[in-house]
Design a protein that fits this description.
The protein has 15 helices and 13 strands. The protein is of the alpha/beta class. The chain folds into 2 domains: about 190 residues, Glycogen Phosphorylase B (Rossmann fold, 3-Layer(aba) Sandwich); about 170 residues, Glycogen Phosphorylase B (Rossmann fold). It has a 7-stranded parallel β-sheet with strand order 3-2-1-4-5-6-7, sandwiched between helices. Pfam families: Glyco_trans_4_4, Glycos_transf_1.
Length: about 375
């Protein structure tokens, strides 16, 4: 099968998932318990240059940005030429999905179109309005729409999408040696002294991640937990300057650690791993925390509960609720141990590459049938 994977510019998990899907289709995983490997598809990954960097399959530049701009006319023409040679176009995100709908309309023998919706709109009225318009275009023009969480699937159903399903978005497995932990120098560099407690958040520094909530919660935790608690945030993004200003002005016990390569080791060392997101689909950072056997506290938003099941403490996206849960887990060794064991069990039950490959083959077959 000739498959064109398409994504617009993305600094989050969308591009990572597009890379994962492209690699699975081109080099299918071995079926469990057998030596059989299915024949791979002919896959091209299309998107802006930053998305194509490190792609596991051949790439083609189609520069669709996260906001409309005049050069989209050139991108649509380029996309139309690429799509004319594909059996299936699989677009990731509303911008890429809407662009694919517009580009494919003029093709006589058009390929099937699958769109994965990765995010709910978080922001002001303007952001939500643009997203609503793109959602309508995708719902009416795609053969199959996948949503990364149940609420997104329901949203697209309500807009009249003809065929919907919850997408499978597993985090890449990261192998960590048993007992692995960051060294003393690393902990000191993060501001963590002997015997101090580590609360860890791994997130892009963007509005969706609820980082002002994190700052509010950190102040409450500091005032209620004996000893010193360091809340380390791993990640970068557009809110870095704003957050650092808050941390400095309010003397918050938060350290912005930037992007790091030792996240698995930090997850094993953390006393609590916290997600303060305002919305999530299938949060990769939470999945990685479960894989590491971490005690997790997370806001009960979007598809987070679909990922964690009972293996995390889920709370409303309010600073008081987050702080209450963190304080409770820090103060109860038995609860931390229970959560860590539940995390490892839950991680073993989450979907993996074989599940994703099976789902996509089924979805593409349905989409081709709808097109006909």
């Amino acid at each position: 099968m000739r498959v064109l994977q398409l994504t617009s510019s993305s600094a989050g998990g969308v591009a990572r998932h597009a890379h994962q899907v492209a690699d699975l289709l081109a080099r299918p995983p071995r079926r469990p318990g057998t030596l059989q490997v299915d024949e791979g598809d002919q896959v091209i990954l299309a998107g802006p240059p930053d998305v194509l960097a490190g792609a596991p399959v051949p790439g083609a530049v189609v520069d669709i940005a996260d906001r409309p701009r005049p050069s989209d006319v050139v991108a649509l023409a380029r996309l139309r030429r690429l799509a004319a040679h594909a059996d299936v176009v699989h677009a990731h995100g509303l911008r890429a999905g809407a662009a694919a709908v517009l580009a494919l309309r003029t093709l006589r023998d058009r390929p099937a179109l699958v769109v994965t919706v990765h995010n709910a709109p978080v922001g002001g009225a303007g952001v939500r309005g643009v997203a609503a318009a793109l959602e309508r275009v995708v719902a009416r023009g795609a053969d199959v729409v996948l949503g990364v969480s149940g609420d997104l699937v329901e949203r697209m159903d309500a807009l009249g999408a003809r065929d919907t399903e919850r997408a499978l978005v597993p985090a890449p497995a990261r192998r960590v040696a048993p007992g692995a932990a960051p060294g003393t120098a690393t902990l000191l560099a993060l501001g963590l002294g002997q015997g101090e407690r580590l609360v860890l958040t791994v997130a892009r520094l963007a509005p969706q991640k609820g980082l002002d909530l994190l700052c509010d919660a950190s102040a409450l935790v500091r005032d209620r937990v004996p000893g010193v608690v360091r809340w380390v945030v791993v990640g970068d993004g557009p809110l870095e300057e704003h957050l650092q200003a808050r941390i400095d002005a309010e003397r918050l016990p938060v350290r912005l650690a930037g992007r790091r390569d030792d996240v698995p080791e930090l997850l094993t060392r953390a006393d609590v791993v916290v997600s303060t997101a305002l919305w999530e689909g299938q949060p990769l950072a939470v999945q990685e925390a479960l894989q590491a056997g971490a005690a997790v506290v997370a806001t009960d938003v979007g598809g987070t509960a679909e990922v964690t099941g009972d293996a995390a403490v889920l709370v409303p996206p309010r600073a008081e609720a987050i702080a209450d849960a963190v304080v409770r887990v820090l103060g109860d060794d038995g609860e931390r141990d229970r959560l860590r064991q539940a995390a490892r069990q839950r991680a073993a039950d989450l979907p993996g590459p074989n599940d994703v490959h099976r789902q996509l083959r089924d979805v593409y077959s349905r989409a081709l049938g709808h097109r006909c």
